[in-house]
Amino acid sequence: MEWNFNNKSKYKKILDKTKEEKRADIHSFHRYFGKLIPAIPRAFIKQFTNEGDVVGDLFSGSGTVAVESKLLNRNFIGCEINPLSTFISNVKTRSYNIEILTSFNKEIELKLYDEEYIKTLKKGKVPFCVNLEHWFRKEVINDLLIIRATTNDVVLSSKLKKSDKQLYIEFYDAVISSIIRNVSNADPRHVFPGISKRIRALEAEGKINKDAKKSFINAIKKRTKYFNDYQNLNETSIKIINGDSVNDKFTKYKNTVDLFVTNPPYISSVRYIETMKLEMYWLEYLKNQTEYSNLAKIMVGNDKVAKKDIDDHLLTPYKEINEKIEELRQIDSKNAYIVAKYFNDMEKVIKNMAIMLKTKGKVVVKISESKVKKIKIDTGKFLTIIAKNNGFKLVDVFLDEINENSRSLTTARNTYSDIILNDNIIIWEKDTNE
Ligand SMILES: C[S@@+](CC[C@H](N)C(=O)[O-])C[C@H]1O[C@@H](n2cnc3c(N)ncnc32)[C@H](O)[C@@H]1O
């Protein structure tokens, strides 16, 4: 099939029908910018796989595809570079015992308001965070330390097995992460943390009330209920690797995956870790600024470029893509490099997917066209050119209405990309035996 949007796509109909289903509550565990709508993995997992099959996502983010795989009794293998995202998605896809969580929750609530208990509690150290006191009120910092020490204490002094204790501590840590943005001074409506005029005005009127203990208690109760979604499911294997899908090797998983569903990062569309920096600092996934910039530099589509790289005039092995890169280079050589690097990195990920997939296995990609310096880049079309050169054929491509979540993400304080025009849903099939 040639690259043409199919407006009679049967897969679009299937997807639109699935969008009418109620999404599982567990997807709301943690806010994450650039999340897939769950209907996308749900529709295609049902369409292209059977129970017990293996689904993959090499940009697994907050784990939307992993969650849907589990809900549909499929196994899952994923990879994600951000250690906090990996952590959250691992917690989200575990089958926690709701009775145990409920009993811990009660004990935690009592202890958090027990002054005598708090006096004896050994609090941990305040984590490193650039401008900590700009982002958090003093009493919030103190409460967050108390919360973490209390949850650790409650779980560790229980009768659970040692290995299980760790899993429950991780549940509470993931919930702490989920409330960080709301208890910080940053405007919760913004993608990137920032203290907006709106927030300052509300603050001046005394309308901002930050109660970390109350937020935490509400959050643990709510999230405990979300695990009801996993009751009565078969035992499946959910594996999410914290790694680099561009440079890591996945030969161990050769010919094991039946279907990939993925939404790769957009070209320089967002600095994902900036959106999550407060949570990452608080949970100590970033211990200093060097760790922050090292991680930022290896994320696909990032805009951290060294001068010497720009001078290299990077291209791809593909004529059509190179023409765009050259057109862009006339205007802005840094962005030309970013685009070339993006497609070279994505080729490595496509090769990894080709290795992992079984023959006839499918890849469903959700991606948008981008505008870089007013030049339109047909990202989906270009990725398909690359895929065809790596053992895939194009099965279908259609347009999907853009989802609000990704719109806010891509238009937010973003100097490189323009507004995203359309979401493409692309289906490839592995058609070689290699
Ligand atoms: C659009 S998001 C995917 C969101 C995910 N589908 C969800 O619903 O949460 C893209 C993800 O790719 C990750 N990523 C960027 N570069 C990566 C790399 N080199 N290896 C693995 N993951 C990477 C980002 O951290 C981000 O979580």
Structure description:
With 434 residues, the protein is an alpha/beta fold. It has helices spanning 10-19, 39-48, 64-71, 83-92, 98-112, 115-120, 132-135, 138-156, 162-183, 197-204, 212-226, 272-275, 277-282, 289-298, 307-311, 319-331, 333-356, 379-388, 404-411; strands at residues 54-57, 75-80, 238-242, 257-262, 357-368, 370-372, 375-377, 392-400, 423-430. The protein has 2 domains: 10-95 and 237-430, Rossmann fold; 98-230, no CATH class. 48% of the residues lie in helices and 13% in strands. The strands form 2 sheets. Strands 3-2-1-4-5-9-8 form a 7-stranded mixed β-sheet, sandwiched between helices. Helix 16 (319-331) packs antiparallel against helix 17 and helix 17 (333-356) crosses helix 18 (379-388). Residues 409-417 have low confidence and may be disordered. S-adenosylmethionine binds next to strand 2.
What's the quick description here?
With 434 residues, the chain is an alpha/beta fold. Helices cover 48% and strands 13% of the residues.
CATH fold name of the largest domain, please? Rossmann fold
* Count of folded domains: 2
The number of strands is 9
Gross geometry: globular
Our measurement of the CA-to-CA distance between the termini, rounded to an integer number of angstroms, reads 21 Å
The radius of gyration is: 23 Å
What is the architecture of the largest domain at the second tier of CATH? 3-Layer(aba) Sandwich
Instruction: Note the beta-strand portion.
Output: 5-15%
Bound molecules: S-adenosylmethionine
Helix content: 40-55%
Mean pLDDT: 92
**Sequence of secondary-structure elements:** HHEHEHHHHHHHHEEHHHHHHEEEHEHE
Judged by helices, strands and strand pairing, the structural class is alpha/beta
CATH class of the largest domain: Alpha Beta
Total helical elements: 19
Q: Strand arrangement, largest sheet? A: 3-2-1-4-5-9-8
